[in-house]
Amino acid sequence: MPDRGSPTLLRILPLGMAAALLLCLFPPLKARRQRQARGQAIIDSASDAIISIDSGQLILHANAAAARLFDDTPAGMRGMRLGHYILRDLRTLDSLGNHEGDPPFGDISQELRLTGRRATDYTLTGRRSDGAMFPLEGSLSSMQEDGQSVFTVIVRDISVRQQMHEQLARSFSQLRELSSALQSIREEERKHIARELHDDLGQLLATLRVDLTLVRQHTDTTPPLQSLLHSMDGLLVTAITSLRRIASNLRPRALDEGGLYFALQKLRHDFLQRRAVHFELMADEADLVLDDARSTAIYRIVQEALTNIARHAEANHITIALHRIDSSLAITIQDDGCGIAEHDLEKATALGLLGMRERVWGLNGSIHIGADSKLSGTRIDISLPMQAEAATAAHQ
User: Fold this and answer.
1) Is-contact 155 126, C-beta < 8 A?
2) What pLDDT does 152 receive?
3) What value, to the nearest 5°, has the Cα angle with vertex 177 and ends 175 and 181?
4) H or E element: which one contains 79?
5) Which of 13, 63, 211, 335 is the most buried (most CB within 10 A)?
6) Residue 229's CB: how many other CB atoms inside 10 A?
7) Per residue, what are the HEC states of 240-251?
8) Is this model's pTM higher than 0.70 or not?
9) What is the DSSP letter of 58?
10) Mean pLDDT for the stretch of residues 172-177
11) What is the 3-state secondary structure of 325-353?
12) Pairing relation of β-strands 148-157 and 49-53?
């Protein structure tokens, strides 16, 4: 009996082993399917648009958020090229007629970060089913699935953010234009007041002093009266000196009579009268033949820099250099004072530095304020574009 049943046992034994093996493998397979289902459910319920593609950039799966973003359906997006919905940039539009749905990425095998470096930058352009374009940002990652590369693209619409940044940029530009206009108006008012003070009030005081001199020449004046007239003459001289100083502070006459170069030389001379420092001004007069707006702005910038040095720097050496480099004017202001901390540059009370920046930006220039590696103080580097028409007008 046992001998007759052994072939049957041998036939049943492999089937039992296979069944046992299936029973052992079934729980892991079931758990894997459950994990995949949970992962798919998470992707489908995500608020960000998530798209899975293969190495040929064909869409394998798109969640509901992606379908809403591109005004399509998940089933309708499946099997389509990614380039049908996401363009690398607007230049892709030039070839859409001949290469509809071109891939947006040149090398999909590399993991790329698609988010722009600045909030106003974006590297992707989305296209909805009706052809409407909108800006995107997102990321691209890869994974291996059943031996095949699968790429996941996560994108989000930044149209609202871009509109906000554009509005902020417009507001910022308008504020710059307003600041520049106010600076020009203020300079014109200063020039007008200085001229009125010098031409009208100055002439009156000068005439009054001449009359006073004639009165003093009379021989019938008593000594007490002569003393009074002498005191009045001294007061008139003081008033004329103060008037010239006030008018010069409002609008330096050297700027109108001799140009920027002589105005800076006068500024240096006045500074040295008040401060015992080594002050070097390096400039070529021919490089500083500029129009009135640029000459005034540069003069005020240097004046404000010297004011800050006098108030805060405690410097012993000052160097100011102005040189033409191609079509730009390079201005460097250095001192060996105590320097300026990084956090002090952005203080709300640093109105002088803000005024310097506004003047430079008003001329479409650039300015950098920081530590000086040579003199261990503060260094200001300014670059101002010199338009050809402005230089021509200045030479005329």
Assistant:
1) yes
2) 85
3) 115
4) none
5) 335
6) 17
7) HHHHHHHHHHHC
8) no
9) B
10) 83
11) ECCEEEEEEEECCCCCCHHHHHCCCCHHH
12) antiparallel
DSSP lists the bridge partners of residue 367 as: 382
In terms of Cβ atoms closer than 10 Å to its own Cβ (0-12, 13-18, 19+), residue 74 is middle
Return the structure tokens found at 17. 């082993």
What pLDDT is stored for residue 265 in this prediction? 93
- In this predicted model, which residue has the larger pLDDT, 148 or 323? 323
Angle, vertex CA 367, rays to CA 365 and CA 368, nearest 5 = 160
Structure-token pair, residue 221? 């004046």
* Cα–Cα distance measured from residue 396 to residue 394, given in angstroms and rounded to the nearest whole number: 6
Give the whole-number percent of the chain exceeding pLDDT 90.
13
Task: Tell me how far apart the alpha carbons of residues 92 and 125 are, in angstroms, rounded to a whole number.
Answer: 9
Nearest CA-CA partner of 377 in 319, 294, 325 = 319
**Tokens (6 digits) for 167:** 């509005």
- pLDDT: which is higher, 339 or 88: 339
Residues 155-171 pLDDT 10s? 888 888 888 888 888 88
Q: Is 202 exposed, middle or buried (0-12, 13-18, 19+ CB in 10 A)?
A: middle
pLDDT tens digit string along 342-368?
Answer: 777 777 677 788 888 888 988 889 999
Phi, psi dihedrals of residue 312, rounded to the nearest 5° = -120, -30
